[in-house]
Amino acid sequence: MKGNRGIFYMVLATVFFALMNVLVKYIPRIGAVEIVFFRSVVSLVMSYAILRQKRVSVWGNNKKWLIIRGIAGSTGLLFFFATIKMMPLGSAIAIQYMSPVFTSLLGVFIAKEKVKPLQWLFFAMAFAGVVAIQGFDPRVTPGQVVLGVAGAMAAGMAYNSIRKLKTSDHPLVIIFYFPLITIPVTGLILLTGHWRTPNSTELLILLAIGVATQFAQYFMTKAYQSDVLSKIAPIQYIGIVFALGFGYFLFDETYDFKSGLGIMIIILGVILNVWYKNRADKFDNYAK
User: Fold this and answer.
1) What are the residues whose beta carbons fall under 8 Å from the beta carbon of 217, sequence distance 6 or more?
2) Residue 223: HSE in the Cβ half-sphere, 13 Å Cα cutoff
């Protein structure tokens, strides 16, 4: 279990992110910026309270990468929530799942981590599964795809920032910088006329989104601090299974026969990547 702790944390994060995605879909009247604002307020309060209880400074140590993580994470989440609003849930998640590819690619330059050639094949396999699930979806415009890919790239940058902070800062400090940057930005946007006063049901859902995302961010941060990027990042692909299931049963989103094949390809790609990385690490350690 110890050697796969990062995988365990990422699976938990994926479950909470799936819950968050469903909740976002349930409040179509509230815009993406407002959702991010409420989510950030909840995160700020929860993170600050726990850090004070643990007597950990909220300002952290490596401020440069904490700020970069906050900016990249905010950008990625804003774009992602926007695509969830505009696209079928499965389509939005599928495009977002390009982030592990960007995470691993950027990780070569930022975190100085090596990706073995065969791992790229497994990345391609997992992403091919996503493509097979979606096929050509006429409900998705090119502009929405560009927005989704930009969000995935920003997410990849955020995950690399977390990896850079693995030894310098507490996971909740890393999470704390996200709302610290997001609240002023989204607050200013809302002041320009994008605010819609939520009713009681929408307010409860907004608070639930904040709590679910807080847990998701915490476990994701722990995952990226626990293991190498190329091993952890592809685990997120499992979330497409949740997206398809929730989309079908809760929102009447239908997909063709390719979905089943795509799911199997995704899972196979993830399993092979984790197995190969574990095997390669053991071999490298033995060679030393």
Assistant:
1) 13, 43, 175, 178
2) 23
Compute the distance between CA of residue 149 and CA of residue 230 in angstroms, rounded to an integer: 19
**Contact in structure between 91 and 140 (CB atoms under 8 Å):** yes
CB 161 within 8 A of CB 69: yes
Residue 29, number of CB atoms within 10 A of its CB: 9
Three-state secondary structure along 74-111?
HHHHHHHHHHHHHCCHHHHHHHHCCHHHHHHHHHHHCC
**Predicted structure pTM score:** 0.76
Q: Which residues of the chain have pLDDT under 70?
A: 1-3, 133-137, 229-230, 255-260, 263, 274, 278, 281, 284-288
Helices H / strands E in the chain, number of each:
12, 0
Integer Cα distance of 222 and 227 in angstroms: 9
